[in-house]
## 1
Amino acid sequence: MGKKGRAIIVGGSVAGLSCAHALIQAGCDVVVLEKVRRPSGSATGAGLGLDPQSCRFLSHWLGDPNLLVRSTLPLNIDQNQATDSHNRITMPIARDEKFNFRAVYWNDLHGLLYNALPSETVLWGHQFLAFQPAHDKNSVKIQARIVESGNTVEIVGDLLVAADGSMSIIRHLLLPDCKLRYSGYCAWRGVLDFSEAEFSQTMKGIQKAYPDLGNCLYFDITLGSHCVLYELQNKRLNWLWYINQPEPELKGGSLTMSISSEMLKNMHAEAEKVWVPELAEVMKVTADPFINVIYDCDPLPKLQWDNVVLVGDAAHPTSPHGLRSTNMSIVDAGTLGQCIGKYGISNLSTALKEYEKYRLPVVSQQVLHSRKLGRLKQGLDYKGHGRNLHWKDASREDCLGLLQRNMPFFAGAPSPADSEALPLMMT
Ligand SMILES: Cc1cc2nc3c(=O)[nH]c(=O)nc-3n(C[C@H](O)[C@H](O)[C@H](O)COP(=O)(O)OP(=O)(O)OC[C@H]3O[C@@H](n4cnc5c(N)ncnc54)[C@H](O)[C@@H]3O)c2cc1C
């Protein structure tokens, strides 16, 4: 039997925890360093969509496919509709009834991944500072600050996995010239908890106007703006509204911003002018909406260096229009685990090159396609298309181009284990 190997993973969000599962299954000892002091509380994050390939990886790691099914709702329909703001009506322009995604609340997904790991895999409150590869490149040493005490610790491993998000320090150390690119718009977003208002006028109205809620990913598009609406498990509605604006000043290195009461008032008034009344009402009654500033990044030239590898948003910051960031993170993790399982930690260089060979072409195309979708839907110029296009007047071909199934590798990204059957979940 080969050497077991130790992986140090920086970042304890979806990519980091997915890698922890995949690398444990590949036979490694794993430690995850997360700068946040403890697992997130119940109100963290919002909604995201999981594709079938990610669902298969997750079910495999969680052991019980029913766990994922119970925490998610189906998204079998992908529907784009044009909003006529003047008459305050929507018209379907493209519909796919074989979408086959699942909707999940970020915090539920994170909790499932975390709870299925051996205890003490994650070192909460450990902020990664720096790394040094050994001279022979057979190991890597990292320094981390313990947030509580301010003390610094050193940890040595065979592999360093950078899962530290879109503002990754590790990526910055390896590729200092790589810069995030502001998309030109921000997302206002919120989750309406309707568990105590199931039969309210707001809920009756939205369910009538959007009859496939609970099974459908709705995109409402108007001139220069678009919205997303879908339901999450446990009686929650997830919505996002993308608004073109100059790049805001980021505070504290976070891409999420809170909203002042003045901004909120203006946003509600604007929603009433732009969207159908039922959607504007959902936005109005949602507690604590927030803003995500949308960035992506041109595809990176590489994803691995000796014994350091990038995964998740650290490897491919992306805009959210193709529902890719979480799915790419999960498939990165699964593929990395397969490559290390195949070659063993003693052939790390070969394993990481194979990971890059599988993942780089896929994530590069997916990031660029998401960028294109965002620009088209926001009425921003994309290679001569999109500017001032009103979707209610668009050609059928243009409308069908908005469907999620046009995403490169929509049917699933290739991986080294294509021929090995992973357990299938959900028929
Ligand atoms: C709290 C939270 C809530 C989110 N909610 C949503 C959502 O509702 N919908 C959605 O689509 N996406 C959400 N995301 C983003 C989503 O998780 C990612 O876009 C995607 O899953 C890729 O995940 P990632 O793990 O690569 O990056 P991220 O989720 O950004 O995670 C990076 C992790 O690395 C940690 N980290 C960064 N620097 C250091 C360091 N120096 N030392 C130690 N740790 C470090 C961060 O604290 C973070 O936990 C959320 C992310 C977070 C962190």
Note: The pocket of flavin-adenine dinucleotide is lined by residues 10-16, 33-36, 40, 44-48, 106, 127-128, 163-166, 169, 312-314, 320, 325-326, 329 (CB under 6 Å).
## 2
Amino acid sequence: MYDLIKKEASSCGFAEVFFLKPLRLDAWHTRAAHLGVGASLRFDVPAAYPGASCILLLVYAYAPFPAGERLSAYYLASQRGYLASQALVKALCASGIPCEIAAVPARALALANGVGVAGKNGLLRIGAFGSRFALYTLATSACMPRIEVPATASCPAQCDACMRACPMGAITPEGIDAAHCMRYFMDGAEYPFSVYQAQSTHMGCEVCQAVCPQNAQLAKRIPEEAEQAAFALPRLIAGDAAAARSLVGRNLTGNGKLTAEAICFAARAGLHEAEIRTALMASPFPAVKRAAAWALEQYFIKK
Ligand code: SF4
Ligand code: SF4
């Protein structure tokens, strides 16, 4: 059974599967409620999936882009992993292994099962994958938990690479201060201006992962031509985000989110003023108008 699940998962593109206990995650829930995040996730896993004897944790590993790349390797992989998880559910069910997508806090459940370690940057690292993966969870009644914990190094006490690199000052020797990490402010289409000013990657921030020595062994890849073309700044600023959204997922990128980001990236580089002015006038999205007005004021009118 375990081998069959792993084989099907591998065929769908997953690098690893862990067979976790469906635990109740009260500590995660308390912290998430305090931060106002994760409302759609089910912290009481046994209650949410009463028939499930095991939660399959699927690891979709990816090769990061070189530091400084504006495209997010994570979100490109995350969309592929999402489609792969749907394909895997179909394949397993067709093989007589009942399962369903489980909306549970994957990182917290992994840690509660002893899989991986949390870095000072708050991110989960798992063995040879470092922190470069997207996680998916399936609930199943077909098998029991079987914990095989991969060796994962904790953060060296003296390491402060992520603390020094974080553009928001969100990492302390005690760990991440989520109230300052920009990732927590980037769910909708409109971000605080401090995020537009510091953001270096579309849709998120990967700075603390790029400098982490625990990720240094991972092979990198260069964005493909189609990926670069989809995220070309003039194209996004003109409101043509369809190709980019199909690559990173439409659910996360509505209401002009990518166009607003592109405007701020371009303005910070002193580029595309005329196109930004056009976006200010023509875009139907408040997020785009707001970003364009701010970017013009900050980077063109004041200069
Ligand atoms: S994701 Fe970015 S803002 Fe958040 S802790 Fe890492 S470097 Fe800082
Ligand atoms: S950069 Fe150093 S301190 Fe930060 S997460 Fe990586 S190993 Fe830990």
Note: DSSP finds 14 helices and eight strands in the chain.
